[in-house]
Design a protein that fits this description.
193 residues, mainly alpha, 8 helices
Length: 193
């Protein structure tokens, strides 16, 4: 058998080992072994910073934030760092998830204004992700239509394509209305303060 230290120094393991330690940390959190969980998380954090794996670093920071909450500490340092990285790397779904976690934290602290602001950001980001996904589906469908040789299949694909175009347009309009409303609410909030 390979010791954890030897496995961690192996190049293939350098990428995988932090993910394993993160999962072990999560399992220890669920088992109530918070000190052991923190050790696993900190070890994974060191390794992820070496390999600069931002995707899993965001996940680890979110797990560390959960541990902070359970330990009676503020999760905001870890959540803000995760949010900063997710925004910089354009991990849009992760950004939406982190907004929701921050909203939940503020709600637990009875800071409903901040909770609402982050929930609104979460909702807006999810709609942006949905609109982006619809656009990508439309692009794929357009390629399939262009490659199709079967006339009946092409006709069916064109019908689906037209529906998707309408859906994308409706979603874009709704997203724009949400952005405008979001800006109005921000202005109202600043005025109230």
């Amino acid at each position: 058998t390979v010791s954890p230290a030897a496995a961690a120094s192996t190049p293939a393991w350098i990428v995988v080992w932090p993910q394993i330690e993160t999962k072990l940390g999560r399992a220890n959190v669920h088992a109530g072994q918070l000190s052991k969980a923190r050790d696993y998380f900190l070890s994974a954090l060191e390794k992820l910073k070496v390999v600069e794996n931002k995707f899993y670093l965001v996940d680890l920071l979110v797990e560390m934030a959960s541990l902070d909450v359970i330990s009676g500490k503020s999760p905001m340092r870890n959540l803000n760092e995760a949010l900063e990285i997710a925004n910089a790397q354009k991990f849009e779904k992760k950004v939406a998830d982190i907004y929701l976690l921050i909203s939940s934290y503020y709600e637990s602290q009875r800071d409903y204004r901040m909770a609402f602001d982050y929930y609104r950001n979460h909702h807006l980001k999810l709609n942006e992700v949905d609109a982006s996904n619809l656009s990508k589906k439309l692009e794929i469908l357009s390629i399939e239509i262009a490659r199709s040789n079967d006339v009946s299949e092409r006709h069916e694909l064109n019908i689906i394509n037209e529906r998707l175009i309408k859906d994308v347009e409706v979603q874009k309009q709704a997203l724009e209305q949400m952005r405008e409303k979001h800006q109005e609410l921000i202005k109202e909030n600043q005025y109230d303060e």
